[in-house]
Design a protein that fits this description.
Layout (H helix, E strand, L loop, with lengths): L1 H54 L2 H14 L4 H13 L3 H14 L4 H13 L3 H14 L6 H21 L3 H14 L4 H14 L12 H13 L3 H14 L4 H13 L3 H14 L4 H13 L3 H13 L4 H24 L3 H14 L4 H19 L1
């Protein structure tokens, strides 16, 4: 009896021990079922999103991708297509957020870094853009858009370097300019800037002062101008003008730089100086005419436009000044006609037809005043 009691106790003990195992297995099974269902829901939202994208329903696609991410925040594909959807809808901030999620989940996706680079540039986040583009080339040294990326990296590093330089942040300027020089080792202007920075930082001894010629100053100014560094460009062009006050090229680039800065009156001053140096400078007369026209100084504008017309302008410039000249000449002709000054009217209508050949109104009025002049002559 004692033996049977021991055997029964063992069986009960085994059953009791098995219950927790069975319970854990059941829980794991249920957990896997729940995970499978969840993944099925995520997949369903993702596939619906892709279908909407193909049909061009971007907003609907965005909703589905967002639902997929809500179910599974680490769903790479949903973040990836949501990022492009946001970009397509011109939501750069949201697109950046999603591409950042893509590289968080998988730091080796070069497409995401490339897209981030472009979005950062568009938002003026130049340092972030540099970091993203450098990551692209690090992951894929022979990227199909390597040349384009390197050009962008050069421009970003150069612009940041010059900005730091102009702000007196020489260490930061040196770092950026060195990176730009690594991309384009042939750029002499960067080498010159780096030499200046080293002198300022005390790395090298200052070179003996050398008087720079106007041509060198203009060339340096143009290099700044081409990279939209207008303050630095203006400084160089001003020095060039001081070095050679009769340099039309220096005055012209200085005027253009002033225009880029929105300093129109200073630009006009330079154009006036150009016409004093070279009375036949077509572009200076044209720019003066456009300025006078914009501020309502019609008489001055017409004077400049007539000068342009005498210098045989390009078709493009002629098309821009013709409407102003025609309106002026036609109006003058009508005023003379109404005062019965037919000879003056005739000359004005002839000028109107010169800038707008075949115009029916001017042609008709010219015929009329000619007829009236003939009648007057017979009297």
């Amino acid at each position: 009896m004692g033996k049977r009691f021991i055997q029964g106790s063992l069986i009960v003990g085994l059953v009791i021990c098995l219950f927790p195992s069975l319970s854990c297995a059941s829980a794991r099974k249920e957990e896997k079922i729940q995970e499978a269902r969840k993944e099925e829901v995520v997949s369903d939202h993702y596939e619906k999103g892709r279908a909407h994208l193909k049909e061009g329903f971007i907003i609907d696609a965005i909703r589905e991708f967002e639902k997929a991410i809500e179910e599974n925040p680490d769903n790479l594909k949903a973040h990836y297509y949501l990022a492009f959807s946001y970009k397509d809808r011109k939501y750069p901030g949201l697109a950046i957020r999603e591409f950042q999620e893509v590289v968080r989940i998988n730091p080796k996706i070069t497409v995401a870094y490339y897209q981030l680079g472009g979005l950062y540039v568009g938002g003026g986040l130049n340092e972030e853009a540099i970091s993203a583009y450098e990551k692209v080339l690090k992951l894929k040294p022979e990227h199909e858009r390597k040349a384009e990326i390197e050009t962008t990296l050069f421009t970003l590093n150069y612009n940041l370097g010059v900005t730091h330089y102009n702000n007196g942040e020489y260490a930061q300027a040196k770092e950026r300019l060195q990176k730009a020089l690594e991309i384009r080792p042939e750029e002499e202007r960067i080498k010159e800037l780096l030499e200046e920075i080293d002198e300022i930082l005390g790395v090298t001894k200052p070179k003996p002062a050398v008087t720079r010629k106007a041509k060198d100053l203009i060339d340096q100014g143009i290099s700044y101008y081409n990279f939209s560094q207008y303050d630095a460009a203006i400084t160089e062009f001003q020095k060039a003008v001081e070095s050679d006050p009769k340099s039309v090229k220096a005055h012209l680039y200085l005027a253009w730089a002033y225009e880029k800065k929105g300093e129109k009156e200073k630009a006009i001053g330079e154009y006036q100086k150009i016409t004093e140096i070279d009375p036949n400078h077509l572009d200076a007369h044209y720019r003066l005419g456009r300025y006078y026209d914009s501020v309502g100084q019609k008489a001055e504008a017409i004077k400049e436009y007539e000068r342009v017309l005498s210098l045989k302008p390009s078709k493009e410039k002629l098309e821009k000044i013709s409407p102003v000249l025609y309106a002026f000449y036609y109006e003058q002709g009508m005023k003379a006609y109404n005062k019965k000054k037919y000879q003056e009217a005739k000359e004005s209508f002839q000028k109107a037809l010169k800038v707008k050949p075949g115009d029916p109104d001017a042609t008709e009025m010219l015929s009329t005043v000619k007829m009236l002049l003939e009648e007057k002559g017979r009297e």
